[in-house]
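Standup notes, structure subgroup. Blocker cleared on the MU-OXO-diiron input:
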Amino acid sequence: MLGSKKQVNRRDFIKFLSGGTMVFASSTGLNLLTSCSTFSVDFPYIKASNQDDVVLAKGLNYEVLFSWGDKLNSKEFVGDNNDFISFKEIAENEAILWVNHEYTNPLFSSGLERSKSNVDKERKLVGGSLVHIKKNDSSQKWEMVKESQYNRRIDGTTQIPFSNGVEVYGSKSAIGTLANCAGGMTPWGTFLTCEENYDMMYGERAEDGSLNTKRSRLKWWKHYPHPPEHYGWVVEIEPRTGKAQKHIQLGRYCHECATCTLTKSGTTVIYSSDDKADEHLYKFIAKDKAKIGRGVLYVANLTDKKWLPLDLELSPILKKHFKDHVDLMINCRKAAKIIGASPLDRPEDIEVDPISGNIFISLTNNKKKGNYAGQILKISENSDYDSLTFEWEYFITGGEDSTFACPDNMAFDQKGNLWIATDISGKAIGKKPYKSFKNNGLFIIPRGGFSAGRAYQVASAPVDAEFTGICFDNDYSHLFLSVQHPGERSVSKENPTSHWPNKTGIPRSSVIQISGTTLKKIMG
Ligand code: FEO
Ligand code: CA
Ligand code: CA
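Run returned:
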């Protein structure tokens, strides 16, 4: 299906901008009016598909860059269920990718029995990979540099210190990072990786101090009684050395992402969300330049349009409930509710619009409240990113009219087009009320042109899979994408629901690169 060419729809373009006073066009280097008046959309898009493949719009093609199990060096290999991807250029046509490995499916990777040897295999499959890539001169495609000194795993067994020498549950370091979902890149070029559903591995502390293992599907606690307090943090990784630390002051909860931006005066602000129904949206305002060591964490109250401080001095009511700052950071969810944080419909990925400066937050769904298709929330800070008041509105709502449901991962390209990947859960795909959406997909909401402000599907994921980690290279000629959990609903290795990326055998989560004339056209 090919769309017809039309001029910019000014009203739809304004939709990206409205809802507040914050327009930073001049600070981004992008000229708002030029972009608005010249960009028109004329690109192919696809219909929903249930094929077991990455189905792409005409003029787009993909190659698998690497898959779970591929060798990084003589000792290490790529982990499972890749999610967030971040691109750090280190020379011309050369970069280090960080790729999250959120969890693993024991059916394919280890074995369903919760034995120590199976758990040991799984602990090596989560965390993340640092992967050195280079562009091939003749093909102009990115390729892994095998055996590179930069290729490295940070996994569920790596010892990682807590920031500022802080002790958490009796230790200054944690064993491993896990449940790494989305993340971010700091203004100084380090990667941030976020620990999301950590209770899947080590459970959660109950109010009475016992271990609550209700959501602990992988049951690693059976063999390794690591305290749950050691997980649920934002972890900073140095691209070249792999040096890691867990940042206490960004709080502990099911961190989806850590999206960084700078105020006009150069203060680092990090937005993050807690991916659970009725949990919250947070932002951290750093005290020092180019460091996250000190600062204040805030949580959003949408009714009063205010950021509320999670700090014992600034919110003294918290002194009654928490013995010190570390105790407060460990129990962010509880503290957020005490000071009046707004419950949200599963807040997931967050992106900063490069043109308007507004903050876009995916609200994936909240089934118990009847919100099945989710929406995207837009926040406009009053004056700057360190403002403690804001305006908000819904930018777009999922559903049959908007062609997508359950928005999760997002990215803006340099033209200000918004790319969205959907996350309809494996067990819900193809069933009511999600039947018409078929497999999960990748959508683009163009900034201008006839289709401005509407979602168009440009890729469809293999059976049971979700696209995650939307990431462009430095010149926007390639789009890196994680294909996560293909064949997730399989009940046997012999007869999996997906074989992707192959035609036979068990499925393998992989990172792909997408390029082609349609991407060139979109990037103008
Ligand atoms: Fe790991 Fe919220 O997705
Ligand atoms: Ca996600
Ligand atoms: Ca998700």
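Discussed briefly. Residues 181-182, 256, 348, 408-409, 468 surround calcium ion (ligand 2) (CB under 6 Å).
Next: hand off to the docking folks.
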